[in-house]
What we know:
This protein is of the alpha/beta class.
Amino acid sequence: MVKKLLHTRYRVKDLEKTVSFYRDVLGLKELRRQKSGRGSQLVFLKAPGSEEEIEICKFDESGPVVVGPDLTHLAFEVDDLDKFAKEAEAKGYPLSDGPHCIGGGKIAFIDAPEGYEIELIERSR
């Protein structure tokens, strides 16, 4: 039986640009880098207050990375969505959708490098 979720993997073409986005724009902590048995370059990151990790994988032998629209996304809680949006835009990453008010809180989306979508949630206080 499954005990808990450990990590989610996203394959990318530009490893450093993607890791920089997760680290410098979203504020995730880079935990480790390693090479898999088949030769994939792997970087593991984690959001503050979370147990689950995100694995960013570069493996050119798998062919091009194709991210379909509305295929998948990661969702992160933020304290202040408006402040986050201003800081992210200053770093070259404007919101792609929102913010939208929902039940006293707000949600918005931002596109990570290579088209992966990130949902941002500010919960009502």
